[in-house]
Specification:
The protein has three domains: 161 residues, no CATH class; 39 residues; 172 residues, Histidine kinase-like ATPase, C-terminal domain (Heat Shock Protein 90, 2-Layer Sandwich). The chain has ten helices and twelve strands. Helix 7 crosses helix 8 and helix 8 packs antiparallel against helix 10. The chain starts with 23 loop residues before the first helix and ends in a 21-residue tail after the last strand. The N terminus and C terminus are likely disordered.
Length: 498
């Protein structure tokens, strides 16, 4: 069988597929250059339109000056030589002016053998302005253009010129080439600068995170696989923090699984011998039952209950040796005797840590008796051990238990006057082998208690913790029927103290 950590073979790429670089850096460089070039291409039509308009306006102004010269001649008649010089200087073949609705041909050159196309500079329509230069460039050879514009140097409605568009095409072609070269240069420079910036602030940190993830996948115990947070406050910094936390959680989970596997293997070896020992203890308890000693008779029931629970746990291959707990057999359980037995097993007494049960004699909950006993013992024992390990303690230890009822069921609260639980320990408080708050603890007590509570449909949670102590809340669903005395009345409530 192949190793579980061996990566699966990836499908081979199709050789006929369009080439696209696989690295993020190469893709980023190509995309940056393309987008900058696209931005330049979007500006290109506007720049070409402005250039064509400026060129034609220069011809219009030159034609206006030439028309003024022609009008200053005697009887507004100029010689053929002067007319040719004026038209050639203006770069046009005809000049006309319209005044008061009358169009007058001021200077006329040769007659045209084809109708010119019209460009009206007075028309501010954006579509015509943006497409005009490209219509000029893509038109055939030997064409003429008729241009109309508002006059500047003389009165009139418009000035009209007719000129060959060959020179305009050459001017637009040169300008287009310079624009393309400039855009290519700007795109390359901007692309490289953006690429270097993004590579420094985005790609390289992502490569570092990716390498760490790959090393962690290959070997979770590799110290080089850890990503040290850089302290950045952006998404990269958040990704580093979350990855570091995820790696820590996974290492803890893998450690817990390893310990669980070792525990299961050890339990499988000792389970048989343990059951034999408990069987011998049960035989001894039966022999003790034959004695007539009152003290033995008083202590024997508790011993038998403890042995029965131990045999049941051994039969189930001990706690957490199984895949899951058995479904609870819920029934009404009286709280006072349950707390007394759990307090005795958790070694609570008046000389050390004392239990103050704010519970009435008729208070009951719906729970599996054995599993409820395990929950109580784990909670009380954990609280006692935390109190006993508190340094420089001046007041006696106290664990207060109270109960209340609501529509959802019963709520039990366990408050102690111990040292509380640190914020770091709260994050893994209910994780097996990771939630212990004292040295030498296995971290199973609270995990077992919570699993049993959730198996009942309830929950166990920490609701308060400070240097004055901690408080846990146990919720159990279901409301037991009220306890009835022999006379049909509820007994008076009298909170016991253990």
């Amino acid at each position: 069988m192949a190793d579980a950590q061996t990566p699966q073979a990836l499908p081979r790429p199709n050789s006929r597929r369009f080439f696209w670089p696989g690295g993020l850096s190469a893709r980023l460089l190509i995309l940056t250059v393309l987008f900058v070039a696209l931005g330049g291409a979007l500006v290109l039509p506007l720049a070409m339109a402005s250039r064509q308009e400026q060129y034609l306006l220069d011809r219009i102004r030159a034609a206006e000056l030439a028309s003024i010269t022609a009008d200053l001649a005697p009887d507004r008649v100029v010689s053929q030589q002067v007319r040719d010089q004026l038209l050639r200087g203006a770069g046009v073949t005809n000049i006309a002016i319209q005044t008061d609705g009358v169009r007058r041909l001021v200077l006329e050159g040769k007659r045209l053998d084809r109708t010119p196309y019209v460009i009206d500079l007075r028309d501010a329509a954006p579509g015509g302005r943006l497409t005009g230069p490209f219509q000029t460039l893509l038109g055939g050879e030997g064409r003429y253009v008729r241009v109309l514009a508002a006059p500047r140097f003389r009165k009139g409605e418009f000035v009209e010129i007719v000129a060959p568009d060959a020179e305009l095409k050459r001017e637009l072609s040169r300008y287009l080439g310079s624009l393309i070269l400039g855009a290519a240069f700007v795109s390359a420079i901007a692309g490289i600068l953006v690429y270097l910036s993004l590579n420094l602030f985005l790609v390289r940190p992502m490569q570092r995170i990716t390498r760490a993830m790959e090393r962690f996948r290959a070997d979770p115990d590799d110290p080089e696989a850890r990503v040290a947070p850089s302290g950045r406050r952006d998404e990269i910094g958040r990704a580093e923090v979350e990855l570091d936390q995820m790696q820590a959680d996974l290492r803890a989970a893998l450690s817990s699984r390893a310990r669980l596997a070792a525990l299961g293997e050890a339990v499988a070896k000792i389970n048989h011998d343990l059951r034999n020992m408990l069987t011998s203890a049960q035989i001894a308890s039966e022999r003790l039952a034959a004695l007539r000693d009152p003290k033995v008779s008083q202590a024997l029931p508790r011993l038998e209950r403890a042995l029965d629970r131990a045999v049941k746990l051994a039969t189930d291959v001990l706690t957490y040796g199984k895949t899951e707990e058995a479904a609870p057999d819920t029934r009404p359980v009286a709280l006072v005797p349950a707390l007394e037995i759990a307090a005795e097993e958790a070694r609570l007494d008046g000389n050390g840590v004392r239990l103050d049960a704010d519970v009435g004699k008729n208070d009951r909950v719906m729970a599996d008796p054995d599993q409820f006993h395990r929950i109580l013992v784990n909670l009380l024992r954990n609280a006692r051990e935390a109190i006993e390990q508190q340094v420089a303690r001046t007041e006696p230890g106290l664990i207060r238990v109270s109960v209340s009822q609501d529509d959802a069921g019963s709520i039990l609260r366990f408050a102690d006057n111990g040292p509380g639980i640190s914020s770091r320990a709260r994050e893994r408080l209910f994780q097996p082998f990771a939630g212990s708050t004292r040295s030498g603890g296995a971290g199973l007590g609270l995990a077992i208690a919570r699993e049993l509570a959730q198996g009942h449909g309830g929950d166990l949670s920490l609701i308060d913790s400070s240097d004055q102590g901690a408080m846990f809340e146990l919720r159990l669903p279901g409301a037991p029927p009220p306890a009835i005395t022999r006379r049909g009345k509820k007994p008076a409530e009298n909170p016991p103290a253990v």
